[in-house]
Design a protein that fits this description.
InterPro entries: PepSY-ass_TM. The chain crosses the membrane at residues 7-29, 149-167, 179-197, 341-365, 398-431. Helix content is 53%, strand content 12%. The chain is α+β, with helices and mostly antiparallel strands and 441 residues long. The strands form two sheets. Strands 1-2-3-4 form a four-stranded antiparallel beta sheet. A four-stranded antiparallel beta sheet has the order 5-6-7-8, with helices on one face.
Length: 441
């Protein structure tokens, strides 16, 4: 059974893992390249000679270049004197496409616009590589490839360590390829299991199942409640004419832009100390504004506040320190997986892990090619599956199918791939049998 899982099945499924590792290496190797390519947009030309303009005026500068149907979804104030401020918006015809306007906080000049994505705010280069790694640019259904890779990676890692443990005392000659495959596999076993587990938590179908299990055990990641009590009367502002607002001729939803300055002041008073902040305004009187820390480097700072800007009262609060342990582990795992938790050390971890995983698979295929061929492997797989099924008792078959069913519920793509492989093997066995009968006199 171990031989079946680790050798025969891996020959057909390892290419998906290799592609995931390769695209992951590309993603992990490009943060510095991205910063260099977009340097003129991300950073101010020279250090300021005076304090930066208030955030409200920076947002107003961005308003002047917004498309007529755009809605501001978030604002990220410049985290340092060298950075630009990001004003992110979406348009009605492209609700899933986030565009950032980069504003020089010292001159209010617009330094450019780029599509951005995710908590880390990746730019077009890494956005392309992220989608390549996640879905091979095939959309939502393309995510099945990365989920397939993550599902089988953990199984191949565990069966590999079991094969090594059971054969460790056997004295038999080892080929050069087998030696390096075993050595590399043992060395990066924790990495393989980590990539598999974190990849599954982020996947489409298995990820949803894992989230549901966490929900059953009351281990959800907390989220801000932005709903306001509709019975609360909104106070009028006697100084409204002093606030920067959109003029009537624009079609953008009107925001009290001074609220951007106020919410930062409130956040600092309430203990949010991270330099990297994200503000999400609300155009709905029944929803609060939110401000959150977005420092995902260790020790991470992701506390958040919901604020009723009409009264400037805190309506909800999130503190990472009070998160359930599963939510903390998930957050740390995701940040480690995308290479931001420990900076360049984390990036190096990803690169080394991905390259060694590719080398591990390459050595396995070299070892396999010296002794087998694709058709021969299929025939061997067919014999192994048939032998396991026929030699098992009814009780063993029941246990086996029960285990497969339970794993399949958690990892549906894994189960589908197993059924497809068995179907292909069955078709080949049928064709072989049909051909052999034709040859018989």
């Amino acid at each position: 059974m171990l031989h079946l899982c680790h050798y025969s099945l891996a020959i057909f499924l390892a290419p998906f893992i290799f592609v995931a590792a390769f695209t992951g290496v590309l993603y992990g190797a490009t943060p510095q390249l991205e910063q260099m390519i977009y340097q003129k947009i991300l950073y101010v030309d020279q250090l300021p000679k005076h304090t930066a303009y208030p955030l409200s005026q920076q947002v107003y500068a961005a308003y002047q270049v917004l498309p007529h149907d755009a809605v501001i979804t978030s604002v990220r104030p410049a985290p340092s004197v060298r950075d630009t401020t990001r004003v992110v918006y979406v348009q009605e015809q492209h609700p899933d496409k986030n565009i950032a306007i980069f504003v020089n906080p010292n001159t209010l000049a617009i330094q450019g616009q780029l599509q951005v994505y995710g908590t880390s705010g990746v730019l077009p280069l890494r956005l392309f590589l992220d989608q390549l790694h996640r879905s091979l640019l095939l959309g939502e259904w393309g995510r099945s490839y990365s989920e397939l890779a993550a599902s089988w990676l953990g199984i191949f890692a565990m069966t590999g360590i079991m094969v090594w443990w059971l054969s460790r005392h056997k004295k038999q000659p080892q080929s050069h390829n087998r030696f390096w495959h075993k050595t590399i596999g043992l060395a990066i076993l924790p990495m393989l299991l980590f990539f598999s587990l974190t990849g599954l938590t982020w996947s489409k179908w298995a990820g949803a199942n894992i989230a549901q299990i966490r929900h059953w055990f009351n281990q959800n990641t907390p989220s801000l409640n932005l709903q306001l009590n509709s019975s609360i009367q909104k106070k009028s502002d006697p100084h409204a004419e002093h606030h920067l607002q959109m003029t009537p001729q624009h079609q953008h939803p009107i925001l009290d832009l001074s609220a951007f300055d106020n919410i930062i002041y409130i956040a600092r008073q309430q203990g949010l100390q991270a330099q990297a902040l994200q503000i999400k305004p609300s155009n709905n009187l029944q929803k609060a504004w939110s401000i959150e820390e977005i420092n995902h480097r260790w020790p991470i700072q992701i506390d958040a506040l919901a604020v009723d800007m009409s009264t400037q009262q805190i309506t909800d609060r999130l503190s990472f320190a009070s998160f359930p342990w599963s939510a903390k582990l998930t957050r740390w795992g995701v940040d480690l997986h995308i290479g931001v938790l420990f900076g360049w050390i984390n990036q190096l971890f990803l690169l080394v892990g991905g390259l060694l995983m590719m080398l591990l698979i390459f050595m396995a295929y070299r070892m396999w090619w010296q002794h087998a061929r694709p058709l021969q492997t299929l025939f061997t797989l067919q014999k192994q599956l048939g032998h396991i099924y026929l030699s098992a008792s009814k009780k063993q078959r029941l246990i086996l199918f029960s285990i497969l069913f339970l794993i399949g519920i958690l990892l549906p793509i894994w189960l589908v791939s197993l059924i497809l492989i068995n179907g292909c093997v069955g078709i080949i066995a049928y064709l072989r049998s049909k051909n052999s009968h034709k040859k018989c006199p």
